[in-house]
Request: fold
Amino acid sequence: MPKLTIAQNILAANDTYAAGIRQLLAPRGIRSINFMSSPGAGKTTLLERTIRRLRVKLQIGVIEGDIETSADAERIEAAGASETCQINTRGNCHLEAHMVQAALDQFDLDRVQLLIIENIGNLICPNAWDLGEDLRVVITSTTEGDEKPAKYPQMFADAQVVVINKLDLLPYVDYDLEKVRRQVLALNPHLRIFELSCRTEEGLDGWCEWLENFARGEI
Ligand SMILES: Nc1nc2c(ncn2[C@@H]2O[C@H](COP(=O)(O)OP(=O)(O)OP(=O)(O)O)[C@@H](O)[C@H]2O)c(=O)[nH]1
Ligand SMILES: [Mg+2]
Reply:
């Protein structure tokens, strides 16, 4: 069988799982987000800060994707997520919808109003895999270099939200914020951009307010 056909079959099977996840979450009013970034951009830290601020108002369930370890799920649980599950892909560079379905099978969905899936740190492969999410958020940070959106365009083009993290480090790195804004908006003029620092919490108020509105279906 030609390789192309096999690749199409795998992605078609993934899409079937993704559709099943939407059918599971939508009737319950649970909205979902796929968090993607390069390794270390700050996905887990942003989740920790967000959950600590919103946990009294919003039940947030988190699925943590990593190659190995349960370190991120432990951080998220300590922050006060209502449900948490760690997926270890053992070398796979992205999450797939069947993995998310298996994690959701372990959740009490009555305890979840917003589902956030932290994907494997990688700016390429995760983009090809629909996880049944309503929204894609890409996090980029000032320590990565300001050419990343132009070098890895597809993930930014397909997202609805970009978070630029680690603003506190701007004085110490060569990073042109305006250049990054221009790059991402050239790839996708509809992108919503949040600029923040998880360290100083600058910009966290606006992000959390927007996220709460999204979770409540007001966006
Ligand atoms: N200075 C500074 N450091 C930050 C900020 N946000 C996160 N970090 C640090 O960046 C490092 C990586 O953060 P994580 O949240 O673990 O990143 P991640 O994207 O979840 O990483 P992976 O799961 O490995 O892909 C940690 O040492 C964080 O403390 C920030 O706004 N400013
Ligand atoms: Mg992480």
